[in-house]
Amino acid sequence: MGKLRAAFYSLTGCQGEYLTILGMEDILLDLLSLVDIAEFKLASSKEYDGKVDIAFVEGSVSTERDLEYIKRIRGNSKILVALGDCAVWGGIQASTSGQDPKELMRSVYKTEKNLYGFLGEHKGISEVVPVDYEIQGCPIEGKEFARVLIDLVRDVKPELPDYPVCIECKVREIPCLIVERGLPCLGPITVAGCDARCPSYNTACIGCRGPIRDEANVAGELEMLLRKGYDRERILDLMSLFGARYKGLRSLIEGGKS
Amino acid sequence: MREIVVEHLARVEGHGDIEVVVEGDAVKRAVLRIYEGPRFFERILIGKSYYEVPDITARICSICPDPYQVASSRAIEKAMGIRVDRQVEALRELQLISDVIHSHALHLFFLALPDFLGYKDAIGMAAQYPETVKLALKVKRAGNAIKEVITGRTVHGVVTKPGGYTKVPRAEDLERLRKQLESSIDGAREAIRVFSSLKMPEYSLDDNLYIAVDPGEHYGYSGEYLLVSDGTRHPVEKYMDLTNEVTVEHSSAKHSSYKGSSFMTGALARLLLNEKRLYGEAKESYESLRDKIDPRNPFSNNMAQAIELLYSVQRAMDIIDGLLDEGIKDKLMVEVKPRAGEGIAVVEAPRGLLYHHYKLDDNGKVVFANLVTPTAQNAANMDKYLRIAVRNLKDLSDDELKLKLEMLVRAYDPCISCSVHLTRIGV
């Protein structure tokens, strides 16, 4: 059997997923040799317009170009893997969700004109086309990407975490930053996979891996942090940084407005 | 009329095109068009706590998240009148250096070199030049290893905050890092060897104006003053006079000018303005290669990057030695009591000057943010040299011309995600 053909595409974002992949210097060449790389614009001038087995896509769907591009990518690929918080949840830029696009344009570009084909909000890919696998994180964890790539090459269904960062803190015996130090840690609502990176560096989880899909108890977290003395606006602000498009959080924010 | 578009430049970070229009003998248009989607960072920052600012601004860029974190931390500390420990300063210098090492290694070997050797990418190059690629990966790895030890991650580190670092590296981690740097230095020497043996294209030459930070005693990547190649020196607070940002029709990146002239910032600017502050083997390399570095040729930027790569590896080892001799303190975070204020800071990202300017309210929340990025400052200069290149090369076939223009833009190592959507807003 020949190698699978893979391509790496990007929408609106900082390409942190690809820098993370290129940052795995020790295994990079071996890892990339597992597949035939059809296109990887950041690293190669190769161009390819045909069908691929695996499309890795990073970035949010933010512009008309992104929208048209992701539809074409979906049509051309057997397996579509969303890479990183921008591709999964719309990224840090999606924290502007719910704001008037004209006001956004005015505040930044001093015009209400819709420049650059902005769609009015920043979406994760699954809001627009079906996605087969989502690797969360801002940025992704290199090891997780490597595991998924190897699984796909071996025709094994990749397993991705669906439990909170808190579990990883427990495993590593890191004292709870909320209980012990009263920090506004988003570990309870954020999907695991980083080995509790921020808590292990003495700082609260900022939720950069995004909410645990369908299971993040944002209302419970809000309640707990309110009791710790944080104001509602600050907590919702923190939760919105990487999870603004999570339905539970949006209804919490909108509920608070009424 | 002849119209040429290089669609979506490869081997640069972000999304951009080169657009050329030639009519008869006249170059009607030769520009870098940047069409990165808007991300509204300046809007995201408004109302946020000072504490989250370095985490937010890091997300602007993945090649240079560390300069963003260091510059925003510094600007906020200035706004609130906070002084950090000397060891924090040393770690921040290491953090800036980590980015120069990994970014220059990436750019020189993986983004720029394939063109010169006739490949589409470094993977193709690896079969013919296995040793070069191996050394390249090793020195790039050393840059990322500094990031892992100091910031907790290779992209968007987690410990850099206003006031210091939330976790202090252990002496044994620094010792391991030092060994790794030492064994990676051959990669930097290889960059100098390879690039000094290449013939740099000379299809775009002109007088060039430069701006870089004044790093003080040693060659470095931060300071309080800016040096301009017209011989002047300016405090960072005057940055608006040095950037003069304006919007242009063809690009979502703003364009900068100094006294009406486009200018260059980045490795070549730093090397030409601060050559006297180099020391060690990097200084010797520079002395022996000085003739190959033509200030009128943007391709000289690649040689400058190679010399900076060597310098940065050496300098990182020296900083680590200093920290180990002195003994690392176990706490490097000063207590921050939020207060209102205004602060401006500048650092050198790998591709040039990065200014951060914030105003904070009594609770330490951001009420004003302005960031001026290296690629936005270089944008007008890139257009200038593209125009000259098209004038000299317009008899070439479309494909040949496209490649030569792409190579010219790549010599600047533009980082397109960083270049856009950052502009001054008032609230």
Automatic annotation (TrEMBL), chain A:
Molecular function as annotated in GO: iron-sulfur cluster binding; oxidoreductase activity
Keyword terms: Oxidoreductase
Classification via Pfam families: Oxidored_q6
Domain (NADH:ubiquinone oxidoreductase-like 20kDa subunit): residue spans on this chain: 14-151
Lineage: superkingdom: Archaea
Record PANTHER family: COENZYME F420-REDUCING HYDROGENASE, GAMMA SUBUNIT, CYTOSOLIC NIFE-HYDROGENASE, DELTA SUBUNIT
Name of this chain's protein: Coenzyme F420-reducing hydrogenase, gamma subunit
Organism: Korarchaeum cryptofilum (strain OPF8)
UniProtKB/TrEMBL annotation, chain B:
Protein's organism: Korarchaeum cryptofilum (strain OPF8)
Residues involved in Ni(2+) binding: C61, C64, C415
Protein name: Coenzyme F420-reducing hydrogenase, alpha subunit
Binding site for Fe cation: C64, C418
Keyword entries, A-Z: Iron, Magnesium, Metal-binding, Nickel, Oxidoreductase
Cofactor(s) the protein needs: Ni(2+); Fe cation
Alphabetical list of PROSITE patterns matching this protein: NI_HGENASE_L_2
GO MF annotation terms: ferredoxin hydrogenase activity; nickel cation binding
Binding residue positions for Mg(2+): E42, L371, H421
